[in-house]
Amino acid sequence: MRAVDSAAQMGAVVEAALAAGINHLETAPAYGPAEAHLGAALRQLAIPRERLLLTSKLLPGVDLATGQAQLQSSLQRLGLARLDNLAVHGLNRPEHLEWALQGDGAALLRWAQAEGLVGQVGFSSHGSTDLIERALASGRFGFCSLHLHLFDQERLPLARQALAAGIGVMAISPADKGGRLYDPPPELVEDCAPFTPLQLAYRFLLDAGVSTLTLGAARPEDLAWAVALAGADGPLSAVEKQALARLAEAGRRRLGAGACGQCRACLPCPSGVPIPALLRLRNLALGHGMTPFASERYNLIGRAGHWWEALDASACQQCGACLPRCPHGLPIPDLLAATHQLLAAPPRRRLWG
Ligand code: SF4
Ligand code: SF4
């Protein structure tokens, strides 16, 4: 997804990935020239096919003929006769699941497997817990790619559920969407010592049992952690557990009585405010010094279609319905207003008038 400037850049990243012991490459037609560059890199490096598992994805909602043409184009760009894995890219809404289970998507996935063009099918999702639960329970999918992060653990129970059912689980973007951990603030560096934040986040996910970690590499050196952590998929050590406990405690200390426990008991909000997601960003900003990341995510709200939340804290009508539901007695409307003030990008300065 990230090594898209040229086939040479992709080739350098793939070569470094293989040297690091990585055996799974994941891409998508939606990542611009990524498939074409990856195809060129695979041809140039002449990598034996059996050394790599290759995954690509298709956006949901297309009709059967369009989906068939899209899959064949992907294979052509990649120079492959067969993908190991084909994922529904962004199974984020109920209609996407319906498409995959009953609609043209179901026929497309059946056709792709019957023709031997793909091994197993799965999905990536940024959707609700309920939707992902239904997708996992459908029995249709052999793997899922989810947002699973040290700093956003909401979907970990879903991952455990999937793993227990023999469904592969890939953690999407632990470094970037997991908190821009490759560029951590000083508080975070200090709280995670003697580990780096990214190292601790990767180890946390490996300990949780995720079957695939993604390392979104733009340069060969971005794969340094793959080398350093190769084989480090055992349980957390006592020192790692202590570092995680210190990190959590430091967050609680800085947040004081305003810490949101992320229990979700305040939902549903009659105005549709995603209270826990917004207060999680506040937790990150005030508890861990991650304001630039939290602000970036906050200001994407309402601008990323079904890939992220639609409403920010300004949608709170101060009705108070959530207040009695919070086991921590948090002043939710006040915290939301403060979160908006803290994270909303300042309005652009008007030059005239
Ligand atoms: S006070 Fe705000 S967040 Fe709470 S239920 Fe009412 S509108 Fe939703
Ligand atoms: S009920 Fe309270 S602690 Fe739980 S998610 Fe909502 S605001 Fe946070």
Describe this structure in words.
The chain folds into 2 domains: 234 residues, TIM Barrel (Alpha-Beta Barrel); 85 residues, no CATH class. It is built from 14 helices and 7 strands. It is globular. The C terminus is likely disordered. The site of one iron/sulfur cluster has 15 residues, from helix 12.
Notable characteristics:
353 residues; alpha/beta; TIM Barrel; 2 domains; 14 helices; 7 strands; binds iron/sulfur cluster
Category from helices, strands and their pairing:
alpha/beta
Number of domains: 2
Number of helices: 14
Q: How many strand elements?
A: 7
Query: What is the CATH architecture annotation of the largest domain?
Result: Alpha-Beta Barrel
CATH topology of the largest domain: TIM Barrel
- Please outline the major beta sheet: 7 strands, parallel
Order of helices and strands: HEHEHEHHEHEHEHHEHHHHH
Shape, per Cα inertia axes: globular
The bound ligands are: iron/sulfur cluster
